[in-house]
User: Which sequence fits this backbone?
């Protein structure tokens, strides 16, 4: 059952846009695309948070930077999606490295606060930098091209591209977590001093994980830029980072599919509530509060999905 | 130019003093209870809203102030009892999420009750005009705000350094386990610190209400600035919050107002208009990063 579950889910995910189209619910293809993109970011945050123990309150900076790479590249006439993804990966890797080096000097609450502050730096940079639109944000003139005779200008095709990226990042994360690297990261989260004493350079491991998460979030950001055809400084704001943390918490911190579940739960909740209530955020807040107080380990802890990767926890704790 | 700098320096001091009111409560809640309260800014907003509603109905700013302060503190007292005290022992991530939930609830809550439009809150008539300050006109209300801030800061100094409760608070921020072992009523202490911190935030919100728009979300950016102050000053340290608030107030106000003009001196007008405001808003975060880089626990760490 466990072995069939994932392939089945993937087939279903592949067919969803066709199902939506057949039943006249094309609108939901866009919603699904958003869910997949946010699932990527949330999964990358879950990687450093749930497995690396780093509570980053500035993860949206990489998401927003990815979107701005798309917009700025298109502003300067770049049309190749591949080039944009490469640029997004390079930019976010570099920024992730710099932020990581500075932030990982601090611990606990100071880490939460310094990641937030570093992210705000970039937020205010884009708000103030009028050449690239300032606080109005920057338009993407057209969806970038895939080449090789492939076309992703249609909503279905774009959904599949996003799905491919999501699958690729999940495979990467799964491989990483199952590898020596992942085990060491887990060990460092559980007891950094002991891991260090055994001979794992804790800081370097954490920094590597931080940069990998930054790149995945950056690619997701470039996808949200291509999806919305717009980059807004709001994507980098601290409240966006807060929402990403909310997604991970809703889904389940340290559960492999926590990010995916959390992103889906949050965005569907938003979708349903916002059509029924004018002031829907109040209900999001109440539900979040309930989850945090009643099931602080998120939805995954209730249905225990993806627990296999969490074994270290039971032994360690 | 001279006039402008003079005015901006006064504005920045006034902003710093108000930031201190918000940050002093935040740093104590943080330092004593080890509680990250993102909802602190919401009480800044709620104070301003209640004052605006009462002042709007009665025509008196002072009545608004008198009603809003105890009302906000009472709400804080109640919420501490119902929810927040259950969070003190949890890890910071849970605290961040739960209080983030309160930001969402409060922001939409005030929109639900009082509508999405900003509410007007007029300054008291006696302070509506400018005063002559060393030959330059300056808003008398802004001077009042500064005076209130300074008076409260001095009162806070005596409260914390000269009274028994203050001693408990200082001891709690320094080493909570020891305070518990000495038989102090911790629950009462927590509730007092929490409510009093929110009272100060509400006071700042009411005083700044006439100068900024009283609207949903007005506490969010202030909250982040207050956190910057707390982190720069050192968690749990009230003197640290005072120094931090002045640094942030001055750097932020002067950075935003003067940097664009400074850049205009040697950059083209177009480039200065682009780079100046961006860098101006980034200044305080640069200061915070620099402080944490060299002093990872802030300027005046309270914990031993």
Assistant:
């Amino acid at each position: 059952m466990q072995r069939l579950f994932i392939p089945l889910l993937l087939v279903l995910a592949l067919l969803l846009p066709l199902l939506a189209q057949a039943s006249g619910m094309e609108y939901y293809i866009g919603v699904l695309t958003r869910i997949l993109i946010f699932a990527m970011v949330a999964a990358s945050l879950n990687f450093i948070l749930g497995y690396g123990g780093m509570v980053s309150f500035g993860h949206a900076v990489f998401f927003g930077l990815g979107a701005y790479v798309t917009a700025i590249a298109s502003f300067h006439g770049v049309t190749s999606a591949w080039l944009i993804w490469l640029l997004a990966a390079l930019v976010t890797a570099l920024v992730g490295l710099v932020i990581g080096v500075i932030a990982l000097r601090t611990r606990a609450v100071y880490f939460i606060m310094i990641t937030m502050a570093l992210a705000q730096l970039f937020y205010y940079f884009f708000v103030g930098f009028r050449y690239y639109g300032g606080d109005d944000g920057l338009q993407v003139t057209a969806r970038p091209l895939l080449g090789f005779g492939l076309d992703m200008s249609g909503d279905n095709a774009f959904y599949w591209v996003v799905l491919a990226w999501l699958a690729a990042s999940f495979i990467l994360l799964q491989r990483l977590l199952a590898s020596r690297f992942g085990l060491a990261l887990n060990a460092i989260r559980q007891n950094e001093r002991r891991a260090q004493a055994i001979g794992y350079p804790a800081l370097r491991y954490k920094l590597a994980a931080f940069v990998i998460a930054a790149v995945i979030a950056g690619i997701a950001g470039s996808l949200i830029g291509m999806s919305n055809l717009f980059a807004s400084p709001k994507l980098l704001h601290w409240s966006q980072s807060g929402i990403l943390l909310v997604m991970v918490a809703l889904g389940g911190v340290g559960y492999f599919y926590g990010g995916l579940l959390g992103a889906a739960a949050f965005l569907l909740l938003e979708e349903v509530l916002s059509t029924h209530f004018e002031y829907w955020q109040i209900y999001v807040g109440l539900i979040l509060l309930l989850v945090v107080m009643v099931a602080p380990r998120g939805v995954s802890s209730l249905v225990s999905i993806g627990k296999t990767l969490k074994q270290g926890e039971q032994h360690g704790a | 130019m001279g006039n402008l700098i003079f005015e901006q320096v006064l504005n920045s001091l006034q902003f710093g003093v108000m930031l201190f009111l918000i940050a002093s409560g935040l740093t104590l809640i943080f330092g004593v209870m080890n509680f990250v309260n993102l909802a602190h800014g919401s009480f800044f907003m709620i104070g301003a809203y209640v004052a605006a509603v009462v002042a709007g109905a009665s025509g008196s700013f002072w009545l608004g102030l008198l009603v809003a302060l105890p009302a906000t503190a009472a709400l804080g007292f109640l919420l501490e009892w119902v929810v927040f005290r259950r969070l003190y022992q949890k890890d910071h991530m849970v605290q961040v999420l739960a209080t983030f939930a309160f930001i969402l609830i409060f922001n939409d809550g005030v929109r639900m009750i009082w509508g999405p439009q900003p509410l007007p809150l007029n300054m008291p008539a006696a302070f509506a005009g400018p005063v002559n300050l060393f030959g330059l006109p300056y808003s008398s209300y802004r001077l009042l705000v500064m005076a209130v801030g300074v008076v409260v800061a001095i009162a806070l100094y005596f409260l914390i350094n000269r009274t028994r409760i203050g001693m408990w608070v200082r001891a709690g921020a320094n080493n909570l386990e020891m305070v518990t072992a000495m038989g102090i009523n911790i629950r009462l202490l927590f509730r007092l610190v929490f409510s009093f911190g929110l009272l100060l935030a509400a006071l700042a919100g009411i005083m700044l209400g006439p100068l900024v728009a009283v609207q949903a979300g007005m506490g969010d950016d202030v909250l982040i600035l207050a956190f910057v102050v707390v982190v720069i000053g050192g968690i749990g340290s009230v003197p640290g919050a005072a120094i931090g608030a002045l640094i942030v107030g001055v750097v932020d106000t002067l950075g935003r107002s003067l940097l664009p003009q400074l850049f205009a001196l040697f950059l083209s007008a177009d480039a200065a208009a682009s780079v100046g405001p961006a860098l101006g808003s980034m200044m305080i975060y640069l200061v915070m990063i620099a402080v944490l880089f060299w002093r990872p626990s802030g300027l005046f760490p309270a914990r031993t």
About this structure: The first strand of chain B starts at residue 130 and ends at 133. The domain at 7-123+140-294 of chain B is CATH 1.10.3470 (ABC transporter involved in vitamin B12 uptake, BtuC). Chain B has a mean pLDDT of 86.
